[in-house]
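Slack export, channel: ligand-projects

TW: morning all. Re-posting the request from yesterday since it got buried. We need the structure predicted with the small molecule present, not the apo form. The ligand is NAP; the SMILES is in the block with the sequence. No rush, but it would help planning for next week.
GE: picking it up
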Amino acid sequence: MSSPLRVAINGYGRIGRCVLRALMESHDRDSIKVVAINEPADLESMAYLTQYDSTHGVFPGRVQAFDHGLRVNGEDIPVFHAADPARGPWKSLDFDLLLECSGAFGTRAKLQPFIDAGCPRILVSNPGHGAAEVDYTVVHGINDGGLNADQRIVSAASCTTNAVVPVLDLLDRGLGVRSAFLTTLHSVMNDQPMIDGYHHTDLRRTRSAMQSIVPVATGLAQGVERMLPHLAGRIQAKAVRVPILNVSAIEVSANLARPTDPQALKTLFIEAARIQPNLLACTDQPHASIDFNHDAHSAVIDLGQIRVNNGDFANLLVWFDNEWGFANRMLDVAQAWAGQFSDNPDPVTAEIAQISSSGA
Ligand SMILES: NC(=O)c1ccc[n+]([C@@H]2O[C@H](COP(=O)([O-])OP(=O)(O)OC[C@H]3O[C@@H](n4cnc5c(N)ncnc54)[C@H](OP(=O)(O)O)[C@@H]3O)[C@@H](O)[C@H]2O)c1
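GE: finished. pasting the full token output, ligand included:
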């Protein structure tokens, strides 16, 4: 067997812990190994929050802190606490890829010090502050084919971009999208306070996350346009945070170039889910959001919520686990990228990369 991809995790919060856990819970990700974690928190809290998770439940294994790291299912993972990337131990670590999961480094200027300090490559868990801040942005299953060995900083986009781009792409290729409006209903995040408090440049994020539906700024339209540039200027988006711990939804409203009806849209999505079963799913069950907790798909299309007005105006509801789905996409993109810079291509992602690069 070829050697595994050696990754380090920077920032061990919601996404960092989900990435580790997704790796440990998976039966087909032996090709990735976590060799270090960098996180400001103390070891005891890190072990505790890996073992016990209010959203994803008790970790199905054993996590302990030891003198300089975490012991997960008997495997030792060294932990560092360097807030400044230039002071990280990157040069002395034998690893291939940093999974940047802190969200604290949104620009190239902030990410470059990791590279200068010895990180071979970085996969970022957010879109960054713009396309120019990274070498490439991937929505897994859409454009993995553009990954290459020369790139140093790659973004895995956002959870919402991963959920909506495959759906918009399908609508566009099947029926033509003239314009679309996207509304994200997103669960709370750690950048909101429990009760009102000074917090953010976005004034509404100072308000209690548990008490209100809170409209927040979103870069989703720009994120979609980065993936589907021919739709530039035709996408708008807004987002609200809702007082639940996890799982989000996007309402997609699209003006279509060709007429359709709900049955034709159902057929389109069911067929797409058949082709990419790990990324897309459809449901005809009367679900509520909690049912998608710990669901690894990028998007689940609610077939019972498809509406078409006047033949060319479609309205959809798309569910996604913003934590678990995205953590799994981080690992998928890591595997797909590794296929370009190591001699260890993952067979499934290599196949997806080939499909996406051929434009099929
Ligand atoms: N949560 C989601 O649903 C979701 C989905 C997709 C993408 N993302 C993106 O993923 C990123 C992280 O989100 P999250 O929800 O996981 O946030 P989080 O729970 O707040 O986790 C971030 C972790 O990084 C740590 N950190 C802060 N500065 C650091 C530094 N300089 N070096 C190393 N670690 C540092 C934080 O410690 P302190 O708490 O001490 O600052 C915290 O433990 C964000 O960019 C977010 O947009 C999140």
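GE: first-pass observations. The helical segments are 14-25, 43-51, 108-116, 159-175, 220-227, 262-275, 324-341, 347-357. The longest strand covers residues 177-187.
TW: perfect, thank you
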